[in-house]
DNA sequence: GTGCATGATTCCGT
DNA sequence: ACGGAATCATGCAC
């Protein structure tokens, strides 16, 4: 990040001995010097920003390094905030940036600072009015100058803080853009779940967590994967026929093997995959257990106990039955041909 | 280098 | 908040 770019504090001109000059003149001089220093800092900072931008660099964040660090911390914390999944999965949202900006500005430049300084200067002038005449016009002029300066500083701070935040944000986004293909293990786990729940490929939060754990990826990545998969499957069902068949066969075979083990059926399940612990084998292959099948199969009475499905998905998808090897309707494979 | 596959991001509707 | 759709950006085989 940018190094602190504040100029070395300028030494104000040595003050003349008080008795040798009129008090009013002295005070004005000091104030003029303060204003000059502030002006110089702002102008120099802007000039530097302009020069950097001209060299193709990002505008310099006119913030001390500790401020940048805390901004980085804040952005990182935002990303880890589980209450805000959009942030963690898709970058820092504008509202979060605005909150962050307001927070940093309030910290850097408390709103009462201008009031306090104005009061301070006003008191000084009142004190001076005991030894020299201080007109109300002079008082107003001074207050006006202070307000003007504070506004300028605030504007500068706002701009530089905003730039710093945006720079950090773009860096974080760039880092996230770096894509790596999932491992074979992760893809298998996700595909097996997808094709075995083809009529309703919307894993619950718990299932996503389990899939993420099994695949060694994050829950956000699981969500992204299912989002992409649903869209791409729907767009080109034919292309996925082979894949569907492969995973269908795989899961049905695994089911037969596990089915002989005999497992109790799940009586009430709110969503597929959330029926007790997600049925994954320790070897990494995800298989449907009888409990999941019991959920997917229509009950003897004919009333289907499927969870609320996404009608748009069912309406839009009319997948060709992938040459089902089993072909028994009502079984797991019927799910695929739905 | 090119084209496709795929994970990530963004926008928008519900 | 979540999902669909479009899009971007990268990985990878050729």
TrEMBL record:
Residue ranges of every copy of the Homeobox domain listed in the record: 173-236
Keyword DNA-binding: yes
Compartments (UniProt record): Nucleus
Keyword set, alphabetical order: DNA-binding, Homeobox, Nucleus, Transcription, Transcription regulation
SMART domains from the UniProt entry: HOX (SM00389)
InterPro entries, sorted: HD (IPR001356), Homeodomain-like_sf (IPR009057), KN_HD (IPR008422), PBX_PBC_dom (IPR005542), TALE_homeobox (IPR050224)
Main location: nucleus
The PBC domain, residue ranges: 1-174
CC terms in the record's Gene Ontology section: nucleus
DNA-binding region positions on the chain: 175-237
Alphabetized Gene3D superfamilies for the sequence: Homeodomain-like
Comp. bias (Pro residues): 1-20
Gene Ontology terms for molecular function: DNA binding; DNA-binding transcription factor activity
Chain intervals for the UniProt region annotation (Disordered): 1-26, 251-280, 298-338
CDD domains: homeodomain
Residue ranges with Polar residues bias: 263-272, 308-317
Membership in a protein family: Belongs to the TALE/PBX homeobox family.
PANTHER family assigned to the protein according to its UniProt record, in alphabetical order: HOMEOBOX PROTEIN TRANSCRIPTION FACTORS (PTHR11850)
Protein's UniProt name: Pre-B-cell leukemia transcription factor 4 isoform X9
Species for this entry: Cricetulus griseus
Gene name as annotated: Pbx4
